[in-house]
Design brief:
Chains A, B, C, D: GO terms for molecular function: DNA binding. The structure is a homotetramer. By secondary structure, chain A is mainly β. Chain A has one helix at 55-64, and strands at residues 3-11, 16-19, 25-34, 46-54, 70-83, 89-102, 129-131. The first copy, chain A, has a single domain (5-107), classed as Nucleic acid-binding proteins (OB fold (Dihydrolipoamide Acetyltransferase, E2P), Beta Barrel). Mean pLDDT of chain A is 81; it is low at 107-119, 121-129 and 132-137. The A-B interface holds A 1-9, 33-37, 44, 46-50, 72, 76-80, 93-95, 135 and B 1-9, 33-37, 44, 46-50, 72, 76-80, 93-95, 135. Chain A binds two DNA strands through strand 1 and strand 3.
Chain lengths: 137, 137, 137, 137
DNA sequence: TTTT
DNA sequence: TTTT
């Protein structure tokens, strides 16, 4: 069934990269997307949308994206729930990205030099456009 | 900034219609959208996405949509949070719809005869396509 | 780069199925999508959008879709051009579909009984959702 | 009915601004969007998509967008046709944009100094996000 | 008639 | 817990 999301926004933090027990990479981050007509008067100015990526996309995001960077995300909304350690059911709504496009050249920020592997733009000046199946394996 | 969602799915229940203190209509419902490739073996088969509508759209949804009905929703993802009655902050991610299209002729279900006002398809057989600004007033 | 189209509309004719010299199936049809706010007074009421599909999607569309049937199409805009038989360059803009969802149960119309293979809805009543890579091989 | 297009690409030329007899601004340009997986071997690398904008959006595009600039466009596909001066019917498929987002700071290029009014990014560094109804009046 |  |  149709379930399609397209976002442009900025990362609120560096992405977090993890591996599943079976060795699959997944990275998560939050995208801040400015609201179109916020008056600025006490109103919230942005939505903060949780993004999940898998596999090559996850690794590319972890390598190239950083806090504050602008990017476009294409994916679908996923809902899931789990029981937390207080026995309470927690409901999650998030976006599983199958395509992430970096919209800014990036110099790796000082805050995470160990992970960044430089600039996602190759010598010809064209940005990388990473894509991936979003099946959960 | 760009924040666009398009969904096709079925209502899990009848919509809930409310009015703000200032008299604006809002209706909420959950849309079940089948996942594209679920194996069916213990996997979840659908995502359950919370939808919010306002004004005319809210009233039209309350009048014409019912549990199980198929519709298309266009909107944006909104995040907000509030403190619940235990002093705990609750984070919400939902879709604010600015356009809802009914994809099935509907006979009002018996479960809510008082509110349904019949069939959203006028005499010429073309479905109604309701639209609305999604500004929070 | 981002190039995403989502449409809901009705076929203006039965799809046309063809095979490339290398044996790949492709089907084409036109989708009529009603304009949101047409006054009806001399204005055009719909856009007529040319759709191209490939492979399994092409064959499923040829088998199950018919003139007048409602469906949702997800894809990307493609432009190409060729020289016609008068030596004039013709520019084409069309939608290459990578996902087509049938939104109506369909009894095969009498006009094309040889090709239709019945109803795209299996016994459990859930519509088929066909998907395919949209790479031109 | 649902008809939604989202594109990210670069202008192939400066936009063309015109006014209708009744005084409404409209601007047109072509967006080059790179294809996701072009091998580069004789294949076309991009689609060239004709964009139409109206009113404030038209004027903002004419003022701030220039050849080569990156932007995001949200809109719908429109088809129309007319008879050309040789009595031949010409069919047009184009995107009517209702939202254009500039994705790069722009110094006005030398090629059109008279029209450019500088930088679409105000002092606070946030890009302008222009929006408009896309009704043809 | 095409952009980086 | 939030980005420019």
């Amino acid at each position: 069934m149709l379930n399609r999301v397209i976002l442009i926004g900025r990362l609120t933090k560096d992405p977090e990269l993890r591996y599943t027990p079976s060795g699959h990479a997944t990275s998560t981050f939050t995208l801040a997307t400015d609201r179109p007509f916020s008056s600025g008067q006490g109103e919230r100015e942005a939505d903060f949308i949780p993004i999940v990526t898998w596999r090559q996309t996850a690794e590319a995001c972890a390598n190239y994206l950083r806090k504050g960077r602008l990017c476009a995300v294409e994916g679908r909304i996923q809902t899931r729930n789990y029981e937390n350690n207080e026995g309470r059911r927690v409901y999650i709504t998030e976006v599983v990205a199958d395509n992430v496009r970096f919209l800014e050249r990036g110099q790796t920020p000082q805050s995470s030099p160990e992970r960044g592997q430089g600039d996602p733009f190759p010598d010809d000046g064209r940005p990388i456009d990473i894509s991936d199946d979003d099946l959960p394996f």
